[in-house]
Amino acid sequence: MASNVNPTVRRRRLGQELRRLRELKGMTAEEVAERLLVSQSKISRLENGRRSISQRDVRDLCGVYEVEDQRIVDSLMEMARDSRQQGWWHTFGDIPYSVYIGLETDAESLRVYEPQLVTGLLQTRAYAEALVQGALPETSTAEIEKRVQVRMRRQERITAENNPLRLWVVLDEAALKRVVGSKLVMREQLDHLIEMSQLPHVTVQVLPFEVGAHPGLNGQYAILEFADAADSSVVYLEGVTSDLYLEKAQDVQKYAVMYEHLRAQSLNVEQSRQFIAKVAKEYAE
Question: Residue 222 is inside which H or E element, if any?
């Protein structure tokens, strides 16, 4: 597999193309499912890119949609073949949020709102270890180490020399005040946060308590955007047992507007650095 082939993104693109072909044919997902003697949920999962797509699936769907151009069929078959390859994260075994990692790996920019903790891409190893231990108390030491390693590997998108991820983070003041691990861990974490915020492609803003009620009170979310116009933006909502991915334009727009309000209500970049430095100094006392 070529190093630039991202199976998660290929599944999304292939699913979008299959949905387009279905809609051009004027068929519903239920009608397609009846023709192929499969469940409607399978068709939906194939179209939203949450399920691996076999070449047989592509062949059968192209038959239902009466695709006559063999070049289109061959292109879709190749995408199906690529979508079944493994990304770097698969070497770590079963990762609960592997779909998100695949999207993040290919994203051009990421906007994150974090109400309770420092976002994963800006965490130190010590902070990440303490966080996983506290959030998942019944997790084995080996599993904790695996999750931390994956987190550290994800951070390479931030420090990459070529095409680094454009990251914008709004942190609630609570994320700075919640002691994860120890005061020393927090001091190192906040110093690291200030250091990373100096990068030209990383922006960190703090949303202070004094703001009161704000649009982010419903919880954490992230907006991923991609360089390829064929890839629609995605809103990611992390859950305990399952995650939610929103791709409809109206849903993404609503969260994007909310994010603009959060940015406007937060301290500016320099004020945020000063605020973080002040809290870090308190941990040193």
Answer: strand 221-225
